[in-house]
Amino acid sequence: MRTLVLNAGYEPLSVVTSRRAAVLVMHGKASMLAEEGKPILSPSTLMPRPAVILLHQYVRVSRRRPSPPSRRGILRRDRRLCAYCGKSAATVDHVVPRSRGGDSSWENLVACCSPCNVRKGDKTLEQLGWRLNVTPQAPSQHMWLPQELDAPHEAWMPFLDHTSV
């Protein structure tokens, strides 16, 4: 079981194991807002299993600029959908091929399915007559939220701002 950790301002901060969340609650660093599942048993206590906790002190999170692009980040940004055909994607493709001067930036990398990746090769979109279904760009603020929030647990829903997730 995973537990949603909310910063003191009620914004999602991270997702941790229920054991780690229970330790934070027991040490007085957080409050339990929702519980779920079987309780946590120890030799001396019986504690409800936390589903959502709220930190007592605000944790400042530095989010300067996006990190360098990675395969995992590109696939997450594009929701694992091919930028050319819209099918399920498992690879990453350079829109302007590296052999033609393209770089490995957020703006030049897209998620791609294997058949489209093979067909495209080192050709440009103009040569193939293709167009992108998405506009590749650096990730938004939402990209820095925990990945578990892409498919949130039902118990977390009342605590999430549905406009940002």
UniProtKB/TrEMBL annotation:
Keyword Nucleotide-binding: no
Residue ranges constituting the HNH nuclease domain according to the UniProt record: 69-118
Keywords assigned by UniProt, alphabetized: Endonuclease, Hydrolase, Nuclease
InterPro entries (alphabetical): HNH_5, HNH_nuc, NA-targeting_endonuclease
UniProt-listed SMART domains: HNHc
GO molecular function: endonuclease activity
Keyword set includes Ribonucleoprotein: no
This protein's name: HNH endonuclease
Species of the source: Nesterenkonia massiliensis
